[in-house]
Write a structure and sequence with these properties.
It is a single chain. With about 325 residues, the protein is mainly α. The protein folds into 2 domains: about 120 residues, no CATH class; about 130 residues, no CATH class. The chain contains 12 helices and no strands. The protein starts with a helix and ends in a 6-residue tail after the last helix.
């Protein structure tokens, strides 16, 4: 009995979900169709009247805009479209959805997400379509006013409205195609720049680590011989072989952090960071003794404070390593 009740409850839930989904679809379509003209007029007001040089600021004034949109019916039309779509379209969709759900609920339990795609799409077309229709009417009036080529009748007015609307739609399609082309080109360029920045980042980190290695070995050798005498020279090769990764960890982190930062900026569209990476990878010293930009970066990384810390880490690491080295050789630890 409980199992049957659970099935009935689940079935009723899915039927109700179907009803809400279809109601939302009908409401979305109704809102787009009923609001096509007021939304188009609103788009013309916002994108044409407000953009007129000089007097555009006047149309953009809050009170003037509210009064003109109220008088022209834009505000009332948009409000009516939303209300009628909600109460009439939504109610009709709910009834139809419940009817569909009684048959489909058992087979399609997962519904698509609810979006306002249709109303948004119609809203995007309304401005160009209505603007084209008004332009066609204006052209017809001008022709009929100054010539007798075309008679001003209801049929010619309808034709002018239709041709103007079609022209507006063609312009809208051309704009969408152009935007799509620009976006595709931009995306391809962005992906190319991202791959280029990543490649430069890896290349520069390898070059910087290689250059840094010679500096680390020099500083390490100086402090070891200073603290342990010239006899420590014979142990340096084994020490560096065993401990180099540890003593170079801090400088290498600074190198990685610097180039990762530039690469991250370049991957997010910063052209100056990308150009900086390219300059670092391509510019070499042309005069004897002149430092490359990469060398100058390493000079900042190996400042006085960093060198002092590096030498302290090397001295500690060498003492620890030499102690274990003597223990492995079974030599007396002094």
């Amino acid at each position: 009995m409980d199992n049957t009740d659970n099935k009935q409850t689940s079935y009723a839930f899915h039927v109700f979900s179907w009803a809400k989904y279809v109601a939302h679809v009908f409401q979305d379509i109704s809102k787009g169709l009923l609001g096509f003209i007021p939304n188009g007029l609103n788009a013309i007001y916002d994108h044409i009247l407000k953009a007129i040089p000089g007097i555009g600021k006047l149309f953009a004034h809050r009170w003037i805009e509210q009064v003109l949109k109220l008088i022209s019916g834009i505000t009332i039309g948009q409000g009516l479209a939303v209300d009628v779509a909600r109460y009439a379209g939504g109610s009709l969709g709910f009834i139809l959805g419940a009817f569909i759900g009684t048959f489909a609920a058992s087979y399609y339990k997962k519904l698509p997400e609810q979006h306002d795609h249709i109303s948004q799409w119609l809203n995007g077309l309304s401005g160009f379509t209505l603007g084209g229709a008004l332009l066609g009417t204006l052209v017809l009036n001008i022709i009929c006013q100054f010539t007798d080529v075309i008679p001003y009748t209801v049929n010619t007015l309808v034709v002018a409205l239709g041709l103007g609307a079609v022209l507006g739609l063609l312009i809208k399609m051309s704009v969408l195609i152009a935007i799509r082309f620009v976006q595709t080109t931009h995306a391809a360029t962005w992906r190319s720049n991202v791959e280029h920045a990543k490649g430069l980042n890896d290349k520069l980190k390898k070059q910087a680590r290689l250059k840094a290695k010679s500096r680390i070995l020099i500083y390490a050798q100086d402090i070891i011989q200073q603290m342990n005498g010239a006899q420590s020279q014979q142990n340096l090769e084994n020490f560096f072989k065993d401990e180099y990764q540890i003593i170079s960890e801090s400088p290498n982190k600074k190198i990685d952090r610097h180039f990762n930062y530039l690469a991250d900026r370049a991957c997010h569209g910063d052209e100056q960071s990308l150009q900086r990476l390219q300059d670092l990878a391509s510019r070499n010293s042309t005069r004897q003794g002149e430092k490359t930009p990469l060398d100058l970066i390493l000079d900042r990384i190996f400042n006085a404070r960093a060198i002092f810390k590096l030498k302290d880490d090397v001295d500690t690491a060498y003492d620890r390593w030499f102690y274990h080295f003597l223990r492995k050789k079974n030599l007396p630890v002094t």
